Amino acid sequence: MNTILIIVNIIIFLLLIMGLFMMQKKHVSFSKRIFTALGLGLVFGVIIQLIYGATSEVTIGTIDWFTIVGSGYVKLLQMIVMPLVFVSIVGAFTKLKLTKNIGKISFLVIGILLGTTAISAAVGIGSALGFGLDGIQLTQGDAEATRNMELEEKVVTVQDVTIPQQILQLIPSNPFLDLTGARPTSTIAVVIFAAFVGMAFLGVKRKDPEHGEFFAKIIDTLYAITMRIVTLVLRLTPYGIFALITKVTATSDYVAIAKLGKFVIASYVALIVMFIVHLILLSLAKLSPVRYVKKAMPTLTFAFTSRSSAGTLPLTIKTQTKDFGVSEGIANFAGSFGLSIGQNGCAGIYPAMLAVMVAPAVGINPTSPAFIITLIIVVAISSFGVAGVGGGATFAALIVLSVMNLPIEIAALVISVEPLIDMGRTALNVSGAMVSGVLTGKATGELDKEVYKQQQIVEA
Fold first, then answer.
1. Is CATH 1.10.3860.10 the classification given to domain 2-453?
2. Alpha carbons within 13 A on the beta-carbon side of 286
């Protein structure tokens, strides 16, 4: 009987997929298809849970099949991340787009990412204090106990890592290994390697123009093919979002979420406030925040549902270049650095909130100015090297809590709402990366204001 019910669910899923496909055939805008997919996933997932329950064999079996579409789409995006980063950065050199401003661009992108992370830490502290969150009141169940054991094993790998060692981890020793994404800092390492290749090209071009020109043609061809692959994958976005959000709503533990409702609300208040800060920064740069929201929303929606900043990178770069008018070089620098440096949600708000919640347990007054200032500085510096995939926030929290000599158990006690909060954190991470690209483009004169002002969003 369960098999029949699973087959019925799959048939309904495929029919809804067909509906999204028909919308594409009728040339319905990309953004409308994205939000339609989001709505269908929310409703379909809730219905599945109401009928079968979150942990039933039917639900688990059904979602297992849906994962082919959802997780499969994320894997396709991750597949193209490293080639896209490498070819785009090198291509920026062959097209002479970064030659004059590379130092300024790097400084501005990293500076904005770290600056906004420091602000997000302050926002997280304010939200935790404003809602009166107290980690001592949280209870530990079986899942939390298991998670705590995992964290105790994981913290050994980060608690003795100094800031200079974190910086060293960004430097590639084996670029071919980093091209596989083997390390949390692989993306930044690939950016650094690509920059060296680009600078080497400039030297070869001066001494041997013929070889330089030949290499430039190879990179241009690879870039064209890579971007074509990106376009093909991005066309699958509505289907991926539909499958991902269906899984989230069908399998979420709403009872556990209700128990930690105060923490969830405080987290999302902080995330929303920080997103408003992004809009304020754009306004100060004399750029329309309304236009930013309209054009960024499809990308932020995917980041929200996928919980993967790395998986969202192709969309992040495409939105910056096609919709905001940011130059390709800056868009790739901002998107790539934003994966491992200065993630506003995962490395900023979340660790700061946990630190404030657990501080009273060890006799520290969380409202102390010295504690707050120290925490903001530690959060900003520790934001180097946070992986742009699910679990990056936990990694960041372990580093911050260890440096501040605070108990790490607090990270295990919120495990039941981790996926829900991680959705919002990932969207904020991606927004921070795009804002850093837009502001850097504006500061260096490499932002096409006419493209930014256009109302129509370029379709995938």
1. yes
2. 4
